[in-house]
Amino acid sequence: MIYSTIGFLILVMALVHYFSKLKQNQTPKNPMLLKSAMLVGSALSIWSLATLHYQLDLNTILVLLFTINTLSTSAIFAYFLATKATPIGEIKIKVGDMLPAFKTAGFDSDSLIGKRTLLKFYRGSWCPYCSAELVMFEELTSKLNEYGVQIVAVSNDSVEEQKLHLERDNISHTLVSDPELNIIKQYGVEHHKGLGATAADTVSVFGIAMPLPWKMRFKAMAIPTSVLVDQKGEIVWIDQSDDYRLRASEDAVMGAVASHFNKADAPE
After folding, report:
1. Domain that holds residue 11
2. To 10 degrees, the CA torsion angle through 9, 15, 18, 19?
3. Higher model confidence: residue 92 or residue 56?
């Protein structure tokens, strides 16, 4: 039992560290601590199984519980890390272009003219990395307001899911529902087949919404993409990552804003 308990605790401590970084939008590019914990925890768990005297007692039950949790959690995160790549390269916009017009039942891109906008394509409210990024944008609101920049975020979440997202994470951004991925395809930022969930299929882990693994399905979604647009509708900055876990830092976002906009002529 000692080995399975130690293996489980090692993995839990590594996950606490990983999620603390994720919550700060500082997800490690190569999470060596988590990988090492997964390897060591799994090895200790397998050793516990190999040396276990299988009897129907409390010790056996606890060993099996710790082992199953360690091995299953390690397997899930190993899969996520192995499939972190996003299919960038099909984007249909570039810096210098005018923002392609789009319209949904609840939003018209014409309303962006005369305003500076950070247009964010995100995977959905079920994605912990997207949620952490949008929370970071919320924390940057006062700084962005100095430059007259608003946040408009697009995903294939339903309108109801987005309402729940706003309440859950206490964010004030404009969220645009694109359930058929019409806007996402128009901009060439579609991840044709990614593993995803819905807002209803999440659970809070260390204060972050995490999708339930057994509820996840392969489906189309947006590639995380940030598009900075000036008040004339011209695209001045685009940020995409080939790893869906990694997003632009606060310094990178504010650096892009400051390099393209002045506070003095910020639109009201």
Report:
1. 2-82
2. -130
3. 92
Are 138 and 227 members of one domain?
yes
Q: Write the pLDDT tens digit of every residue in 213-227.
A: 889 999 999 999 999
Instruction: Locate 8 and state its tokens.
Output: 């489980």
Q: Which residues pair with 121 in a beta bridge?
A: 154, 225
User: For 121-137, what is each residue's pLDDT tens digit?
Assistant: 999 999 999 999 999 99
Cβ 215 vs Cβ 79: under 8 Å: no
**Helix and strand totals (H; E) in the chain:** 8, 9
Q: What is the mean pLDDT of the chain?
A: 92
Kindly give the pairing relationship between strand 225-229 and strand 235-240: antiparallel
Please check whether residues 116 and 248 belong to one and the same domain. Answer: yes
Domains: count for the chain: 2
Same-domain pairing of 114 and 61: no
Classify residue 172: in a domain, yes or no: yes
In this prediction the pTM is 0.90
Are 257 and 149 a contacting pair, CB within 8 Å? yes
- Residue at 97 is within a domain: no
Asked whether residue 72 falls in the same domain as residue 121, the answer is no
One domain for residues 126 and 78: no
Reported as a single tens digit per residue, the pLDDT across 6-51 is 999 999 999 999 999 998 889 999 999 999 999 999 999 998 888 8
